[in-house]
Amino acid sequence: MVVAIIALVVATTGGAYAASRIDGKNLVRNSVASSKIENRTLKSKDFSNQARRDLQGERGERGPKGRRGPRGPQGDVGPQGPAGEAVVAQEITPPSTEFPGTSVVDVPALPVNSGGPTSDTGTDLIEPVELDEGTYKVEGTVQFFDFEGGPTAGTEYGVAKVFLDGVNRGTLWTGDVPDDGNNAAQANGSMVLDVPAGGATLSVRAAVRTAESDGGQAGGNLIVTAIG
User: Which residue among 21, 98, 204, 228 is least crowded, i.e. fewest CB within 10 A of its CB?
Assistant: First the structure.
């Protein structure tokens, strides 16, 4: 009975003892196959640093460049873009011989309620511009001075009008023209003009509307851009 009990104890504890005593030194190299390892039981800590780098790659490290793929077919032609803009005229009032260092011309005084200047009254600020048929953007600035006059009893308004073949197409108004003989009253603006077939002449005329009899001086610049 005693011998049988001892044999039973040895038999039941031998496996546990062997398992507690087996380590990597007792295993033959390459003796443990993948089929002997339970799936999804290995963790990243079970692998060396080099093995983890080989499996996952270093964080932030660019992988090797792949081979260039074959060239794809040419795409469809895109829609035509909008027409470009081209400056067709850039005019400025010519330099004055009467007032050196300025680009002004003398402009007349017209009654406050005259509605002028017209295509026949006032003074041309720039040389007339010949335009072909098309659509144009017209933009400019005008300045009015009173280089010769003293204080006036009323307000002096600077008025410049844009004409296309003598027809008024736009007006610029300034505030009161200063009486100090130095500073200017200024206005600027822009518009779009459609020139009909056969072309047309663009002109800018200026005058001072005032209750006084004296006029003043005015100058300006004009930029005309073809937009269609």
Answer: 21
pLDDT in tens, 44-100: 777 777 777 776 655 556 667 778 888 889 888 888 766 667 999 999 999 999 999
Partners of 131 in beta bridges: 200
Element (H, E) at 119: none
Helix (H) or strand (E) holding 131: strand 129-131
SS (H, E, C) 159-222: EEEEEECCEEEEEEEEEECCCCCCCCEEEEEEEEEEECCCCEEEEEEEEEECCCCCCEEEEEEE
| 14: three-class secondary structure by DSSP | helix
β-bridge mates for residue 193, sequence order: 136
Q: 135 with 228: CB under 8 angstroms?
A: yes
Rounded-to-integer distance, Cα 178 and Cα 183, Å = 6
